[in-house]
Amino acid sequence: LVxxxxxxxxxxxxxxxxEHVTLDRTVRxxxxxxxxxxxxxxxxxxxxxxxxxxxxxxxxxxxxxxxxSEDAGIRIDGAPDAxxxxxxxxxxxxxxxxxxxxxxxxxxxxxxxxxxxxxxRGDGIRLWYSAGCRLHANRVERSRDVIIWYSSGTVVEExxxxxxxxxxxxxxxxxxxxxxxxxxxxxxxxxxx
Length: 193
Description:
By secondary structure, this protein is mostly beta strands. It contains no helices and 24 strands.
């Protein structure tokens, strides 16, 4: 990744790669089958800070468990138009944490949180001040919520959320669409506030 330039595609080969990665240039990060980024139980595994990044086909696992540091599998931070497609995230406090990153897409991904009591879990997907995003055909399990806060104009469709607290949790967000989602074995299906 160090030698990659904006517009490049970086292919991650099969195998376990024990590292934390920051994408600070507009690249495509594509995992071959069996490619795993492992955070070793510390911090955020993959951080995106450049606009227009695409991450596809990776398994991302083993973030830290710190709430003050908001440890996540993927953190998209001030990076509009990011795309996360066909990614498998497991054993993470927060699955995908999107902060001030408009028009992001999370599509066809699976997120399974850490094996923690409900009160200690992080959100499977959290949008925070990120407008115009789309969450499509994802599967989220063992998380706290799929949460959309201060994020207007989102489309949430065809997702499955299981064994979590809130299947879907909106607050202070206008002009959103949610349809054809399935909520199973959660404490609450959808909370629209």
